[in-house]
Amino acid sequence: MTPSTTPPASSILNADLHCHSVVSDGTLTPEALAARAKANGVELWALTDHDEIGGQHRAAAAARANGMKYLTGTEISVTFANETVHIVGLGFDPDDADMVQGLHKTRGGRGQRAMEMSDGLARVGIKGAYEGALKFVGNPELISRTHFARFLVESGVCKETAEVFRKYLTEGKPGYVPHRWASLHDAVKWITSARGMAIIAHPARYKFTPNEEYALFTEFKAHGGQGVEVVTGSHTAQEYVKYAETAREFGLAASRGSDFHSPEESHTDLGTLPFLPGGLTPVWELLADRIQ
Ligand code: AMP
Ligand code: MN
Ligand code: MN
Ligand code: MN
């Protein structure tokens, strides 16, 4: 048998199923992201803006124009065990009314939170942060910590956004405001009721104890969640191995995505991550009938 008769393993696919546009806290339009993904060799793409699906029709059209396959996407902010967890949704109906409404509600607290963040920054001498952050916002319903970080870099308070998060925007720092996002149950339900797949985003990023992490995966499964990001821009190579094992242990499908936000800020570009490890079920295998 010649090697050419063996079909490639389905894990060998340049799928990038996690990134952000100006519709949330990215700096590129859906069209510019699609062109960049194509140039980097992406074969299957998803735009996953935070708590927002307003860019989905544009992204799907741009993928089509570039000859790439597409899955609808979003990344929902959830509060679990007093920590913010992100749940990626893929392959859902972008016009599903419950999902559109649920995400609208989740976005609702961001304006008030932003004003409180600005007050906190003013108390340490940084004035006008709300107005400053707004200049970087592409979607008025989606003011995020990232926009504050860009303003603090622009105004010379910090050299780069990572430094802003470290010094000002994380728990215990002057610009941090605790916030309650959606429940895990609601987020998974919105996605699955709209025929999509719910996926735990970048699990290594959360500061959970082993017991809390076990509870997250167990409850997520019980609610109908089906996948976990294994290869992501925010995991190390050891974390790919660790979460490949977790995927097998919990019977979850595996996803791959850069979490690209901006050419200036992101260290992982679209389509440049290693392939998924073998021996896993890629999420795109279960979503085959929803690929556009
Ligand atoms: P928010 O949803 O407003 O709380 O903002 C969360 C976003 O901030 C994430 O999606 C990332 O884009 C960004 N972010 C969070 N932590 C960091 C960090 N340590 N360095 C850089 N960006 C971060
Ligand atoms: Mn972000
Ligand atoms: Mn995230
Ligand atoms: Mn993300």
Automatic annotation (TrEMBL):
PANTHER family: EXONUCLEASE, POLYMERASE_HISTIDINOL PHOSPHATASE N-TERMINAL DOMAIN-CONTAINING PROTEIN. This is 3',5'-nucleoside bisphosphate phosphatase. GO terms for molecular function: 3',5'-nucleotide bisphosphate phosphatase activity. The keyword Hydrolase applies. InterPro entries: 35NBP, PHP_dom, PHP_domain, Pol/His_phosphatase_N, Pol/histidinol_Pase-like. Keywords: Hydrolase. Residues 15-80 form the Polymerase/histidinol phosphatase N-terminal domain. Its EC number is 3.1.3.97.
